[in-house]
Design goal:
Blueprint: H1 2-20, H2 26-36, E1 41-46, E2 49-53, E3 59-64, E4 70-75, H3 93-102, E5 106-116, E6 120-129, E7 132-139, E8 145-150
Antiparallel strand pairs: 1-2, 2-3, 3-4, 4-5, 5-6, 6-7, 7-8
Amino acid sequence: MMKVLFVLIAGIPAISLQAQAKKADDAQIRESLLKIVPEAKVVRQDGHEYKLTTVKQTLMEVEFNRDGSIDDASGDAAAAGDVFVPGNGMLTLAQALESLNKAGKTPSGDWSYKKSFMHGWVYELEGFENGKKMEYLISAKDGALVKEKKD
């Protein structure tokens, strides 16, 4: 009797964890997607990875975790039309570009939004400085330039 009771009690936390594990469905992710990339159209979906066209006909990709949170995002037109609004108190792509411009940098080309082990959520942006191709890392929390290097 004690063994049966122990097995039943020991199994309760595992059942509780499974019940608490949140998994977003496609409808929830698509709703979230339209907030993150306003007025975008889904071109292709592969699991929780979405390829989109923006209003200005630029291409972007957004990948979600199982719970519906953003895993990462990227595009190839940072300064030419990509719109990205991650929410959760993070800067938009436009605000990150503005921070980079204020720092005297010239963004252009590809960008990505991802979680860095050292810096938390960041935008990685391409640009030019003194005629040389550069890569910039901007904190998505406060817009600080956390890293720059020649590409």
